[in-house]
Amino acid sequence: MPDKIFPAGPIARRADGIPPFHVMELLSRAHELAAQGRDIIHMEVGEPDFPVAAPVLAAAQAFLGAGRVEYTPAAGLPALREGIAAHYAARFGVTVDPARILVTAGASGALLLALAGLTEFGDRWLLPDPGYPCNRQFVQAFGGEVDSLNVRAEEAFQPTAASVAGAWQARTRGLMVASPANPTGTLIARETLAGILAEVRARNGACVVDEIYQGLTYGRAPETALSLGDDMFVINSFSKYFGLTGWRLGWLVAPAPYVRALEKLAQHYTICASTVAQHAALAAFSPEALAIFEARREAFSQRRTCLLAGLRELGFGVPAEPEGAFYVYADVSRHAPDSAAFAHRLLEETGVAATPGVDFGAREPQRWLRFAYTTDVARIEEALARMKKLL
Amino acid sequence: MPDKIFPAGPIARRADGIPPFHVMELLSRAHELAAQGRDIIHMEVGEPDFPVAAPVLAAAQAFLGAGRVEYTPAAGLPALREGIAAHYAARFGVTVDPARILVTAGASGALLLALAGLTEFGDRWLLPDPGYPCNRQFVQAFGGEVDSLNVRAEEAFQPTAASVAGAWQARTRGLMVASPANPTGTLIARETLAGILAEVRARNGACVVDEIYQGLTYGRAPETALSLGDDMFVINSFSKYFGLTGWRLGWLVAPAPYVRALEKLAQHYTICASTVAQHAALAAFSPEALAIFEARREAFSQRRTCLLAGLRELGFGVPAEPEGAFYVYADVSRHAPDSAAFAHRLLEETGVAATPGVDFGAREPQRWLRFAYTTDVARIEEALARMKKLL
Ligand SMILES: Cc1ncc(COP(=O)(O)O)c(C=O)c1O
Ligand SMILES: Cc1ncc(COP(=O)(O)O)c(C=O)c1O
Questions:
Q1: Overall pTM surpassing 0.90 (yes/no)
Q2: Tens digits of per-residue pLDDT, A317-333?
Q3: Model ipTM value
Q4: Is-contact B364 B345, C-beta < 8 A?
Q5: Could you give the 3-state DSSP secondary structure of residue B192?
């Protein structure tokens, strides 16, 4: 490109090639419509709609009241790392050494750190398609290449030992997986993950397991991959179950031999995660806070039942049971050939916003639309009623 | 290394080779001594010692009181971007389009973003030695290589047009510079920076100017490189002048043609910066807040005068006048052959903690010790008195 356009030299390839999120366009159109007085039902948002839980808010306010907000150690406040470890013990019966826990700016920070610590230029990573779109960018950030794993609805949109083994190449560094997953809300079965791990271990590879939606499961007890061993890189966050999105706080559990190097990376890349958020999160594991989160999970569960039944009744296909997170990934092909165009039509004609599959992968994205049940049952019913009229 | 030690494959080179900060060792020894009842004077800390300014605290508390802490746009709250632009206009007389401002998790986040957007595998960056140690890691994160610029005390420890031109190679992508600088507290003269920019522009390279200590200058009006053009990548932060370290908030001003790509990177890498911090920072440009920051600058100025005179009186060399930040970079060679050993001796025998040069570069680091005046005049005088006894 001509120098005139880039006065300080070219943009790096990792930044230049990123397609915009389609949903952003939809969102700005939604804002326009709202400004015109239209009532928009937001089902595109990957963010819980609850206020900050009172005990967490109180902890933040008490901390701020003391008036000092200093850098913390790069790995996080010792008390928070211990609190997270205690949570693993209490809820999952899994022992995790607090020394293996690195506190980060959201799961985003944990993913960045893990990929930075594991990716050599030219390394390849296996990523399920559909999947969380940012994972591709974390890999490419550090000179890695992405190989998409074509997961199947009949296998809960999750990889299998066979698919991983089949896709592994000489330069494959590892696999990224999420459970519950975005955009599908599906879980990976314990045996399936164990089988995958065996394949990854046999190849001396790395398994990054994103458990950001941990705790948000319906009809199934929450699980952690950490019960299968201590050689995975487990990603987590206070954003979803704990409802602390805008606070930017998460964590990474790393295998012990990697911790020191990752901690040094964190020191240099970030100094530390938000001190205010860390002090607030200290209260997130209290019985009072957990009771609130469990009540919210129950609310999500009811929304899920309502949305899932409603979408199926309208003729949307939901072939893989979404048992977690707050998403339903619906097949719209009975109603429209292209989910992106359909999403725009939905928005214009019914005021319902949902995210088209094109934002999550390249495998038949035009068939899929992600509905988030981050709005209450009354609004979900209203959305379903409007869609019924349209179809 | 044997597989047994790294069960999930090797650590990436960018993480494996990072030397630990020497000051960390000193710090843990300082904590030990403090636990034994010793009075430690902390002059190693690169963090202002003031509480959160009242208007900023009030803004944070008011925002939290509303109970909703959601993700913001990746580039930051529009009101904050506008506030930053208005600050450039009011204080520096420089017009910056808010659209060019990307809000980040501290200057750290801004540096990461800029280097990610500019560095191709194998690109080379020129970094002054001594300098901020993390810069090297930001370059290496993205496959870049560092060439150290040997800056001279007689030239304020800053690069010159000649040194940049002389060090530029075929694969040099750009230059990183800081003013005021860490660890030296020195500024780059406007003409010098203009001369450097001419060299960089002639080579279609990128200039990253770290202005994190902007506002903390003594006897000199604060400046911005943005007055020299709109083709630089300017780094800034709420950490130092605004005293908001643990909040993790900063910003990047990018040349217009790069903004969209950098914004997409930020979307994927971080989602957004702390929402709580962004709302707090909205109050940082109010006249009341600025009055507090100016009063603190005055306090820093008095500390600087006291420390600088005291160190010189003790026979430490301070060849380049530190006119900004809160650091004095002192030559200890009259007293000791190795500043790292000397730092340990200082700590053990006087309880004064300072950071050895080895943490900031490879050029004669054993001559230098960084004293931070992030403690009050009485403590600085006490530190000087104890050192006088020792020497
Ligand atoms: C699967 C998955 N991983 C990671 C993230 C990052 O979230 P955060 O950085 O807020 O923890 C998200 C956010 O939606 C997600 O869906
Ligand atoms: C020169 C310089 N740049 C950047 C940073 C990063 O600071 P923050 O991320 O808190 O803004 C520091 C911190 O000490 C610094 O000294």
A1: yes
A2: 999 999 999 999 999 99
A3: 0.97
A4: no
A5: helix
